[in-house]
């Protein structure tokens, strides 16, 4: 199975369209912004939307009241809006309670949030579980405020019993092993964190839904933290057997690729990602597991222990524009998003190809020539002066549109035969030999067709 598209650039128009359509929407952990986002995604990709009522107990948490915004602003005595939610939805602290009042600058000041070290940026702030209100603005805006002015403050929001909304879809496989692909959609107009993850998640779901899969993949899109806790509480029995998974997040920045490993550090999820970077000879930033992150700390909590990894591009916390208005569509790009999507597809391809084989002729090397698996003319194999051009010589293996991996097919064939002891998986062979896993898989399947190998059912480590 080859999952990586022959032309990854074909995803660009849809990635660009989704980024532009979804960026302006004000999202939070509940509310109409979440529904609007899922509705746009549903137009192109089938998924099931679920709603959990406010007040529902989920382990130690409770689904909060639903929050929606009509308008919010701070105006001067002439009625001019100087902080305006309609200009940028980051201006309003998420989950602000309703306010309508006139107040002095001294009264307003405790409710204003700025970033003095990034004077052109509006910070992103929330007050999910604390009944309060506030506005975010650039330091330059703050410095222009008149301390002698009387300000009109309007926060037209509604906090009332409603629902927490999430979506899911399960793509069935045949192996009995299941992986989780989860991301979060609770942030308002922030590009890399995590609109980029939402779009990649949707494109990944659509691509895998077109495939005949060995493993089952459970796709979940939730509000961060409370959403994953709600999901776990409602699917407790089903998720306990998950082998591992990914959390696509911050995947479209201009910097280096990165990988935040699972809490185990050397799980199959970690190994297929490292193998992907190695095969592409692609430099990246490795990050150890850290509980300060996204929903991996929920999925990997003591009751579940699902190993979760994140392939990223400008990881959260690591870039200057994180949680600010400068994390916008100018900072990210559809091109970077599609590059990261290709990495996820190549890593999942390795999960699909990671079979274990047993030799049916283990007493020495089987005769390859009579099966058409050996060059008809001998002597030139491994000869530096020879320029083999046959199918069994130095055939190259392409795994992306911009990089070709080396690898002699006869070498791959011999290594697969050598390690096919019923215990060593293809990923282990790739790790031992440095050969591309796609090449090893293609060779192994040819050997199965020639009745030299058989597939062994083996538990995933």
**The CATH topology of the largest domain:** Aminopeptidase
Question: What's the mean pLDDT score?
Answer: 92
Binned strand content:
15-25%
| Helix percentage | 25-40%
Classified by CATH, the class of the largest domain is Alpha Beta
The CATH architecture assignment of the largest domain turns out to be 3-Layer(aba) Sandwich
The termini sit apart by: 21 Å
Please tally the β strands and state the result: 21
| Shape label | elongated
Write the CATH homologous superfamily of the largest domain: Zn peptidases
Helices and strands: which structural class? alpha/beta
Q: Note the main sheet.
A: 8 strands, mixed
Spans where pLDDT lies below 50 across 5 or more residues: 385-407
Total of helices: 13
Write down the Rg.
26 Å
Name the assembly state: single chain
Strand order of the largest sheet: 1-10-12-11-13-16-14-15
How many individual domains? 3
């Amino acid at each position: 199975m080859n999952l990586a598209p022959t032309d990854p650039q074909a995803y660009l128009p849809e990635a660009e369209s989704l980024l532009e359509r979804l960026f302006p929407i004000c999202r939070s952990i509940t509310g109409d912004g979440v529904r609007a986002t899922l509705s746009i995604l549903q137009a192109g990709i089938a998924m099931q939307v679920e709603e959990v009522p406010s007040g529902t107990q989920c382990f130690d948490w409770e689904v909060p009241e639903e929050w929606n915004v009509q308008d919010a602003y701070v105006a001067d005595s002439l009625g001019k809006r100087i902080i305006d939610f309609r200009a940028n939805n980051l201006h309003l602290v998420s989950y602000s309670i309703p306010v309508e009042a006139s107040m002095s600058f001294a009264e307003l000041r405790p409710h204003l949030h700025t970033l003095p070290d990034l004077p052109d940026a509006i910070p992103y702030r929330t007050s999910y579980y604390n009944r309060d209100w506030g506005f975010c603005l650039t330091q330059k805006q703050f410095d222009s405020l008149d301390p002698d002015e009387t300000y009109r403050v309007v926060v037209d929001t509604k906090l009332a019993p409603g629902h927490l909304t999430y979506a899911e879809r399960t793509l069935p496989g045949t192996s009995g092993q299941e992986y989780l692909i989860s991301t979060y959609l609770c942030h308002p107009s922030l590009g890399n964190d995590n609109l980029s993850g939402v779009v990649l998640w949707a494109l990944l779901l659509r691509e895998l839904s077109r495939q005949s899969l060995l493993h089952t993949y459970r796709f979940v899109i939730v509000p961060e933290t409370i959403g994953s806790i709600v999901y776990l509480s409602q699917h407790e029995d089903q998720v306990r057997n998950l082998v591992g998974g990914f959390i696509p997040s911050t995947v479209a920045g201009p910097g280096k690729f990165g990988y935040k490993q699972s809490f185990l550090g050397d799980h199959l999820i970690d190994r297929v990602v490292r193998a992907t970077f190695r095969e592409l000879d692609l430099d990246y930033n490795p990050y150890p597991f850290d509980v300060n992150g996204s929903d991996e700390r929920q999925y990997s909590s003591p009751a579940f222990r699902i190993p979760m990894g994140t392939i990223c591009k400008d990881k959260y916390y690591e870039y200057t524009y994180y949680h600010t208005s400068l994390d916008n569509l100018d900072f990210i790009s559809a091109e970077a998003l599609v590059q990261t999507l290709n990495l996820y597809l190549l890593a999942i391809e390795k999960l699909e190809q990671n079979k274990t084989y047993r030799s049916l002729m283990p007493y020495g090397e089987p005769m390859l020539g009579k099966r058409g698996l050996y060059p008809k003319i001998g002597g030139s194999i491994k000869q530096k002066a020879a320029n083999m051009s046959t199918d069994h010589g130095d055939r190259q293996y392409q795994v992306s549109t911009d990089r070709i991996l080396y690898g002699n097919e006869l070498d791959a064939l011999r290594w697969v035969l050598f390690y096919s002891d019923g215990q060593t998986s293809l990923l282990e062979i790739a790790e031992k030999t440095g050969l591309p896993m796609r090449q090893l898989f293609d060779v192994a399947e040819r050997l199965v067709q020639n009745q030299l190998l058989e597939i062994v059912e083996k538990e995933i480590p």
